[in-house]
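WARN retry 2 of 3 for item q-0093 after timeout on previous attempt; input resubmitted unchanged.
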Amino acid sequence: MKFTLTIFLFFISCAIFSQENMLSAPIIAVDSLYREDQFYLGFTYNSLFNKPDAISQNKFSSGIELGFLRDMPINISRTLAIAAGLGFSYDRCFHNLLITKANQFISYSTLGSVNNTSKNRQDQYYVDVPLEFRWRTSTPESHEFWRIYAGVKLSYLIHDKYSHIDNDSNYHISGNTDLNQLQFKTYLAFGYNTWNFYVNYGLTPFFKSSAKINGETIGMRTLNLGLMFYIL
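OK item q-0093 returned
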């Protein structure tokens, strides 16, 4: 009887000890309904396409964009999703397009082959509304994965500034009504984890069809190449 009671108490003690260990051990929950909501930050080199023969770029033209994207998975494994967001972008372009303004009338020409110009630059600031389709190899346990994000973007021009400085003049032009205030763009981001290659192409011309140089419409568009960083 004593032996049986001893065995019984031994198993009860083991059960209580095991239960205490289970209660004290941390419980790691797997979030099967995770979202890849992300802040993004991109740096680009800006190139002009479809421009008149007389127009060329000079110096390094750069851009930056940042914002937030809301992730909406569309399959059970959550490797496919649609994302919408809100952001801000800034584009800077150095070129030989000379813009002048007299009596509220804006005209366009090009800088001569020999000139004393120290600055000839266009700055543009946009509010962006991106919408993208997402494919990724993400899992609930890891945020390091391969991704391909393709989308379209609606960009609204909130401020523009053209700057020209040479030995004889120093002036700025803002609020150029010849610029297309609403821009449609398409883009692609692909890479692994934080580092991603980024391509952004403007579907809308920089200038309206009314802006001409030597009788030719200034129908140039932008192609931005660079890196995109996603931050959870």
